[in-house]
Fold this protein.
Amino acid sequence: MPMFQIRGEFKVGRRNERFMKVVESKNEKNAVEKIYSLLGSEHRLKRGNITIKEVVPYGDEY
């Protein structure tokens, strides 16, 4: 299954924290949904507090 590297930032209090995660997913849309789910569960964030800046294929499989 393809892997995607996703970069962005999320709001914590009054400041923004940057993140970079690599997820395994069928396509870019599902990868973004997975990031929303992961960050929401790990940091208790709403989708409105997460900004996706870049989604790129990662590794050889794509």
Q: What stands out?
A: Residues 28-43 form the longest helix (16 residues). The chain has one domain: 3-19+28-58.
